[in-house]
Amino acid sequence: MMRALMGALIIGLAAPALGIYLVQRRLSLIGDGIGHVALTGVGVGLLLNQSPVISAVIVAAIGAVGVELIRERGRTSGDLALALLFYGGIAGGVVLVALSDDASSNSLVQYLFGSLITTSPEDIAVIAVLGAAVIVAMVAFRPALFAVCNDEEYARVSGLPVRALNILMAVTTAVTVTIAMRTVGLLLVSALMVIPVAAAQQVTRGFRTTMAAAMAIGLVAAGVGVVVSAEADTPPGATTVILALAVFVAITVGAAGWRIVRRRAHPPHEVEPPDVVLQEVR
Amino acid sequence: MSVVNVRHAAVGYDGREILHDVSFEVGPGEVVAILGANGSGKSTLIRTILGLTPLTRGEIDLFGTPQRKFRDWARIGYVPQRLGAGSGVPATVGEVVASGRLARRGIFRMPRVADKTAVRDALTDVGLLDRINDPVTTLSGGQQQRTLIARALAGKPDLLVLDEPTAGVDAASQEAFAAALGRFQSTGGSILLVAHELGPLRPLIDRAVVVHEGRIAHVGPPPEPAGHHAEPDHDHVHPHAVQQANGICVAPTDRIPAN
């Protein structure tokens, strides 16, 4: 239980720290796609009797860098290339897992939807080290990553190493997806990257505050999710995601209510002058 | 030594040449406007100078260094046509302007006092210091444009490159921005800007380069506006997208957007 909680808390912090950049560049679903590719890595690991976490990190990283190179070329066929990559990834994973010694459908479900209880101490060590690396990289490079995600051409003219930063983000996505597969599972990883950010940005005004708030929401959802799932005997991954969604709904409704209250108290009085010469409509 | 030196530049996309044999230069402290109709290739020209679009033929030197070997990007402040489409993640005016310091300080160093001062100075220069903590999306189009100028100024560049800085900008912002550019020039900065129409920027311009159908048609003092553009009460408004009409329609050629 303590191991499970520790793993969940690390992911709860790391996933939104990365997710905010993905949301900013409108790649909210990329985590999901990389999750599909990581499944092939799991299959490779099980087949070779190696740690599936390590092999999944490697295969997902290769996939993520490939996606980034396709995106960089900006061709319209990129969308199709991504689809091929993702479905190839999940189909490859299913086939390889079936070929391995551990070929029960149970083991597949473990990776697709997460299974903290079977997490070994070695797994937790890997999750802790990689998770810490993700958090440090995302926080330390915030100004540069923000600049690249906000306006890539401007970043390039500023002489920033845009490609290196994009590849850093791609590899970080792969790492986050893979370490999160034990907690929330490959199919729900993206949720933990995106939902806390979506919730935070309802009430924040700046990028830094959004990042901090999203990480706090992720941490709380993951922590409470593990505890609740243990009490209620529900799967921890799905429970965490539902909690995060509940936070999103609560914040959205609360913010809307607050705006209505404030508008009643201070009706808008300032109207900017029109920027055009007004003509009478005949 | 010239700040920008373009010699016999040719640029094309997908086999179609857009600029043919273009040569001009920007000297230190000079303000040069690239004028031309939409689709004339003027935006492509500055994108090529900045290295965003590759050259097919010819040479470009920046501050005396061939562009391929040029690494001192902090000396150039780029002001794009507009702020990228918002993705929903909020960012404050201060955060956007702070991006302009990255070229100077590098990505590994944390911001220092000098960086914060430069951001505040740049915002003061464009008259937006009071909005530093507001989300950029709450600003008007003209204020967003001023934010982008502040971002470029924050890096303390020697050359400002602006792409259509006055397109769709309210009169108050145009004035604020002409004043900021004037102050930049008076401290020895060079300016290269692309414009469709000069408006309040006209008194600043030392030289105009008119691009027509991918070639330079005129170099010298800014030419007088022609046709209906010259009418004293001409309110120059261009829609950002030409509406598709059914059937046959004849559009004025200067309103056909690039691409």
Automatic annotation (TrEMBL), chain B:
InterPro entries xrefs: AAA+_ATPase, ABC_transporter-like_ATP-bd, Metal_Ion_Import_ABC, P-loop_NTPase
Region described as Disordered: 220-241
GO molecular function: ATP binding
Record keywords, A-Z: ATP-binding, Nucleotide-binding, Transport
PANTHER family, per database record: METAL TRANSPORT SYSTEM ATP-BINDING PROTEIN TM_0124-RELATED
Family: Belongs to the ABC transporter superfamily.
Name of the protein in its database record: Metal ABC transporter ATP-binding protein
Record organism: Paractinoplanes pyxinae
